[in-house]
Amino acid sequence: MESYRTARGPRQRVVSYLGNLQEPIRRGVLLAASGGDLAAQLPLPGAGETERETAEWVEIDVDRVRVERSRAFGGAWVALQVAEKLGFPTFLQETVARRCEEIGWPLMALVLVLGRLCEPGSELSLAEQGYARTALPELLGVPAAKVNDDRLYRALDRLLPAKAALEQHLKKRLGELFSLEYDLLLYDVTSTYFEGQAARNPQAQRGYSRDSRGDCKQVCIALVVSREGMPLGYEVFAGNRSDVTTVEEIVALIEKRYGLANRIWVMDRGMVSEENLQFLRREGRRYIVGTPKSQLRRFEAEIVGQGWTVVREGLEVKLCPGPQGDETFILCRSADRREKERAIHRRAAQRLEAGLKELATSCGARPLTVAQVERRVGRLLEKCSRAARLFQVEVQTTESGGAALTWTIHETWNAWSELSDGCYLLRSNVADWSAEELWKTYIQLTEAEAAFRIQKSDLSLRPVWHQKEDRVKAHILVCFLGYVLWKTLGRMCQAAGLGGCPRKVFDELSQLRVVDVVLPTRQGVEIRRRCVERPDPHQAILLQRLGLRPPESLPMRDL
């Protein structure tokens, strides 16, 4: 130990930890210090293992053997192995600033990220319950008593400035581990909502909520991932920011950070505007984007015509040249999507027609003015907007001064709906790909959607309890890093022939536990051993496939 002075008085810190001596060596040191005969007391160097193990023995009172402090081990240990594979602990030690704090901020940042994967929840929940339920105190050497909400919040503040460097490090490391290519980037936007007013956060605004929580303030999160779903970077925008206004900023940010390369950008139709497409074409960027369904009318003849290419059963695609010649439109037709859309339209039409019949009955039962009926019709059409164009509704004045309601089916719109159900449109300036290749590339956008789903459900991204802007961004950064661990484990599982989804593997290995085994001796002394549960046959197969070997025991530390 070393003593040093601080503004708060003298303190002590560990200079070097020499480890725990094995019992025969410890007794030999004591014997040598007392001047005893080592050769007569210790086993010879060439002695067998049995002789060495029997160098000292005690009688155990088997009736009083007990187990204490059972904690979850498998999930925390696997998460730490994945983090070390990414070089994450070393990077934090080199990047996150540290001073004379008792527990270094790099170590606390590691607690946040591993806790996000093992015990997803708020930082307060991790400090009060989650951290102590796992073997993280033993694995990281940070006592549970030292992990509190204040220290975790301050660790968030120290971690956020390293965001850009973290993204670059992870891109390089993931590329080295899995030979990733970043020639195709998938871009999507989601939102996450706040609990509380978030009055001190200017980015917390009300807008379109993907979580169906329009009553809460929110922020928008823009995420860029590779074709394999590996995250490349993200940004946080105000909650009332529309998707279409984020494209130029994100593309410029990625190109500034990683250079202007021959990439293909894939985005859904919410990102599409003529200004954005002109921006992408300006520097020779290539793209595959979704297109609003309203533009399907321009391709009515192509829908009816021949020349469809079957991608798989129930899915057809067709290339249609653009009017300017510099773009290609990809017409897609899905049988499953057609059945779904027709069922939606059918239910909406039934609800709308039932509402019109009820309103017509009300007109006959009591006198209603034309204005009253028109207002009620308007509310009904708004409520059943998917079928609003199917009916031609008229409100007329009767001879008695009341209102009469009549409606007919709009046959032209009904015929177009039957024809276009299940069809959607893509557009691209990639000229040398087939329709099948373009569709398969666009459909990989589901990787970005899966990333949001995992972060919201498995990693508890929502709701956000923080009120300060920087704390909110740091919370999202921790969830982003937790997702990187998740995807890395997924790639390890895929390489091991265990599938690409790590959820079942992680849940299975998380069942491994560590316990303190207490062995009372007949002399009154208790021997303690911190033992790791032996994997069952199924868990042993998973570990062997992943190339992981958990320890049989952990050192006894007073944590």
Write down the overall geometry.
Answer: elongated
Strand order of the largest sheet: 6-5-4-7-8-14-11-10-9
Helix content: 40-55%
What would you call the structural class? alpha+beta
Would you identify the regions where 5 or more consecutive residues have pLDDT less than 50? 38-55
Mean pLDDT reading: 89
How many β strands by DSSP? 17
Strand-residue fraction? 15-25%
Sheet bearing the most strands, described? Answer: 9 strands, mixed
Radius of gyration: 32 Å
Given the structure, what is the number of helices?
21
> What is the CA–CA distance across the termini?
18 Å
Brief digest:
This protein has 559 residues and is an alpha+beta fold.
Task: Write up this protein.
- By secondary structure, the chain is α+β, with helices and mostly antiparallel strands.
- The chain is built from 21 helices and 17 strands.
- The strands form four sheets. A nine-stranded mixed sheet has the order 6-5-4-7-8-14-11-10-9, with helices on both faces. Strands 3-15-16-17 form a four-stranded antiparallel sheet.
- A hairpin with a 6-residue loop joins strand 10 and strand 11.
- Helix 4 crosses helix 6 (105-118), helix 6 (105-118) packs across helix 9 and helix 14 packs antiparallel against helix 15.
- It is elongated and about 120 Å long.
- The chain starts with a strand and ends in a 5-residue tail after the last strand.
Notable features of this structure?
559 residues, alpha+beta, 4-stranded antiparallel sheet
